[in-house]
Write a structure and sequence with these properties.
With 431 residues, the chain is α/β, with parallel strands linked by helices. The protein has two domains: 84 residues, no CATH class; 296 residues, Alkaline Phosphatase, subunit A, CATH 3.40.720. It has 13 helices and 14 strands. Strands 6-5-7-1-8-11-4-12 form an eight-stranded mixed β-sheet, with helices on both faces. The chain has a two-stranded antiparallel ribbon with strand order 2-3. A hairpin with a 5-residue loop joins strand 13 and strand 14. Helix 8 packs antiparallel against helix 9. It is elongated.
Length: 431
């Protein structure tokens, strides 16, 4: 049992940051000044700032069709993936397309009546076909990595990289009441939140996750100490409100401390840490191509979603800029991705969390239909994407490419090719 400190000793321990483990009565800190609390309570100040950012209203740029209970997993296949190997395998080579594998090796979507297929390395994912929509023939309007990624992320095409728009995950997160609106994990695109178009959005990045975790109490003594500080903030706010009347600032302070209190008592810190038990589902039957970093990103994403801690997750897998030796480079990357995403989908479904979680897999652009002299493929301004879960009507292919791998216009109602119809681009995916 920690001994009771004198008021002066307690004040000094708080200011010096050494008082985390002490238990004391609220009266001991009742007359500590705001400056004294902030001097030593940077760990608490961080929570207060984050919680005020989490106290979101309706985003100026966010339409009401983004319900707060929906979650978004935004997966960037960085470098420009080959749509012939992913979303749009062809039955045979043509004068404009080099198919390097037999169409019979590609996979039909389980539960789909369509004869169309996804790539040869996506067999595990194909078993979730009834929850999947395959998007093909998107006109990317660019072969620039930066411009293509931003176009997918925001729905705005700019070859300069200067875009006055927010990322789709940021728009969704701006209406969220989740503990952490967005987490950007390794390889995920950096959410654009600073364009003045949104309610404040808190983003936690992979490199800061350990620091964020460390702000939560790890012992009962530390929890008691921090709860008493919150009690002081609450009682001080109530006394001030009684003297001066209600104000938006006081309401924000009270709301912040209430959210922090819930996070502390719910032991959120431990839920942000990955354990061997969390990894287990992504280890069983894993091929030797699976990258440990990517595995941990998917395992942590699953834990965060099933604990309802996050609204949006930005993940990413790199290595798709295959200008040479593409077959050798793509095989292990796609095999690993297929296993990890299929496992992720299966686990979400088992937890009854897939219907309220939309997974979008996209890339900067596609790759050329013809193989170059280095057995690779170069940049191509036509892309494809996968959409899984989120309650969508799966088992479908949307969009068409021709025998030169160029996107064709389609009828927005029937999906059939129509010269006067819709030319698919990233804005139709959500931007």
């Amino acid at each position: 049992m920690s001994k009771k400190l004198s008021r002066d000793a307690l004040k000094q321990s708080i200011i010096s940051g050494t008082g985390h483990g002490h238990i004391c009565h609220p009266s001991q800190i009742d007359d500590l000044t705001r400056r004294e609390l902030l001097l030593g309570g940077s760990y608490l100040t961080g929570f207060a700032l984050a919680s005020q950012m989490l106290n979101t209203g309706t985003a100026m740029a966010a339409p009401s069709q983004y319900p707060v209970q929906r979650r978004l997993v935004w997966i960037n296949m960085s470098g420009g993936w080959d749509i012939l190997e992913a979303t749009d395998p062809k039955r045979a080579s043509t004068s404009g397309i080099d198919m390097v594998y037999d169409f019979g090796a590609a996979h039909r979507l389980t539960g789909s009546a369509s004869e169309d297929r996804i790539g040869r390395w996506l067999g595990r994912l194909a078993t979730h076909g009834s929850d999947m929509v395959v998007v093909r023939g998107m006109n990317m309007g660019t072969t620039s990595h930066m411009a293509g990624s931003i176009y997918m992320d925001t729905g705005v095409l700019s070859n300069t990289g200067t875009v006055n728009a927010a990322s789709i995950p940021a728009i969704v997160a701006s209406e969220s009441q989740a503990t952490i609106p967005i987490i950007q994990l390794n390889g995920g695109s950096d959410p654009r939140t600073d364009r003045g178009l949104l309610s404040p959005v808190s983003v936690v990045r992979a490199q800061n996750l350990d620091l964020y975790r460390s702000m939560y109490p790890e012992s009962k003594d530390e929890l008691d100490q921090k709860l008493m500080i919150l009690d002081h903030i609450k009682s001080s706010s109530e006394r001030l409100e009684a003297r001066t009347g209600a104000s938006d600032r006081l309401t924000a302070v009270k709301t912040a401390q209430e959210k922090i209190r819930v996070q502390f008592t719910d032991k959120v810190g431990s839920k942000l840490a990955l354990t061997d038990s969390d990894r287990a589902a992504f280890v069983a039957g894993a091929p030797n191509t699976v990258n440990g970093g990517a595995r941990d990103a998917f395992a942590l994403s699953l834990k965060l979603l099933t604990n309802n801690l996050v609204t949006c997750l930005n993940l990413g897998i790199g290595g798709f800029d295959t200008h040479a030796n593409q077959d050798r480079q793509m095989a292990p990357i796609m095999d690993s991705f297929d296993y990890l995403l299929a496992t992720f989908v299966a686990q979400l479904k088992a937890a009854n969390q897939l219907d309220n979680t939309l997974i979008v897999v996209y890339s900067d652009f596609g790759r050329t239909p013809k193989v170059n002299n280095s057995s690779g493929r170069d940049h191509w301004p036509v892309g494809g994407a996968l959409m899984i879960g989120g309650g969508i009507q799966g088992g479908r292919f949307v969009g068409v490419t021709d025998n030169d791998l160029r996107g064709l216009n389609i009828n927005a109602t029937t999906g059939a090719t129509d010269a006067a119809g819709l030319n698919l681009n990233p804005t139709h995916l959500g931007g």
